Each structure stands twice: as structure tokens, then as C-alpha cells.
Amino acid sequence: MAGGPVRFEDGATYEEVMGVWSRLAGDEFLDWLSPPSGLKWIDIGCGNGAFTELLIERCGPVEVHGVDPSDGQLAYARTRPAARVATFQNGDAMALPFAEAAFDAAVMALVIVFVSDPAKGMAEMVRVVRPGGLIATYVWDMIDGGFPLDPILEEMRAMGIAHPRPPQAGKSRMEALEDLWRQAGLEAIETREISVQRTFPAFDDFWNINSKASTVGAAISAMAAQDALALKERVRRRLSAANGGGVTYGARANAIKGRKPK
What we know:
Blueprint: H1 11-33, E1 40-44, H2 50-59, E2 63-68, H3 71-77, E3 86-90, E4 103-109, H4 118-128, E5 129-140, H5 150-158, H6 174-183, E6 187-200, H7 203-210, H8 214-222, H9 225-243, E7 247-259
Parallel strand pairs: 1-2, 1-4, 2-3, 4-5
Antiparallel strand pairs: 5-7, 6-7
Helix pairs in contact: 1-2, 5-9
Organism: Vineibacter terrae
InterPro entries: Methyltransf_11, SAM-dependent_MTases_sf
Protein name: Methyltransferase domain-containing protein
């Protein structure tokens, strides 16, 4: 059973919950892309700018435009050092406010499952990138257990508790991404699985941070107190059995890249 749509409005909370994960996976993603410096980039669904900042630190871009539909997330992004280089603006992934062939590279970091029509979003990425340009994404495997919040979400499902799901969660599978890239007419398509780990000093640190996530926070707040406590204890047993006092666990993302034909 699924809840309502997933919304990301609080940039500071997103940073605490997902910013660390985004950078962990983003580092491996950029190592794999290995782009030259001096490119013009568009970061679609930039959110609070976590990946945008990493892109600037790692890749020496000459220009970066971050686009996101959340004013709250963008406000946080504009407080980052990245704002000295990047321009952040409100926009829709399916109707990008840029001319054709305006960029050397387009990227979506952990976003494509939240685009209501991924094929249309792909068409827009292709449109705004120059011939020969790079188009790439990485996304948590939402179906096969790769999402960082899965320790909580799987216990919620076992209790029959509804929680929001991304509208296009199935597009996180590698074969679905490959289909999107092929159907968009891209060339030199390559894929990679990215596995990362995060450590919390104690279970309460894990719970206090992750229970704030929009994906689960509203559902937990709506639960009866005894059910919320039962969920917490189920997750504690799930994680502590494998990790002792602290919590170390992994997440997995699927990545894909390709080139617009010249």
C-alpha cells in the first residue's frame, strides 16, 4: 500500500538525511564519469545543491545551472559555497527553461524516479545538450533494496503501514534506465552499479535523523504512539543484530551514461 506523493521542501532536513548519502554515491559516480574540466553543466532536480557542490569541487566546470521545483530546496542551495559558481532556479525537468544545445553535459542525481514522465524528462535532457554531449544519471535502486531508508520502509511494509513511493520507482532498475537511454537515441551507453555505506555511532542517531525524512516522517507522525514505538523497535532489532551498538549499513544506486549523437 502506498501513501501520497513524495515532496522535498526542507533543504536543511534533506541535507541531514540524504546529503551525506548523495555525496557518497556522487563521488563514485563522478569518478566513473571522469569528465574533463571546463564544461557547461545542467544539474536537473538539483534539490538543496548537495550534488551540485560536489560537481563544482570535483569537475572544474565553467558554468553550472541547477534546476528544481522546490523553492525551499533552492533557498538552501543558494547558501552553499557552490552558489559562487552555480545558478539555481525553479524549473520543471519536463520543460527546461533553456535553449537547445545550451550545455555540454546534463545530469540527474537521484531524481529520475520523481519525474512523472521520465521519457519526457529524457527528451528535455537530450534537447538542451549539444551534439556529442554527456547525459547521465544515478538513482537509488528503489525496487530491489538499494534505498538508504529501506531498513525503515521494509519494516513499515511488514506492519501494513502506508508510506509515499516515488511515482516512477520502477525506473530505478538498471534495465529500465537502459531502455530510457536507448529510446532517447543516445550512443556509447554504459552502466554501473554504485554501492556505498554509512555509519551512525548508535541506533538512536540513525533513528533521529532518518525518521525526519519526508518519505517516512509523515507516516510515522500519523501512527498511534504504540505503533510508532513498535516500528522503532523492529528497525532497531533489524539493524543492531548485524551491527552491535552502532549502525553501519549500505545503499545501492544504478548509474547510466550516454552521448547525444553528433
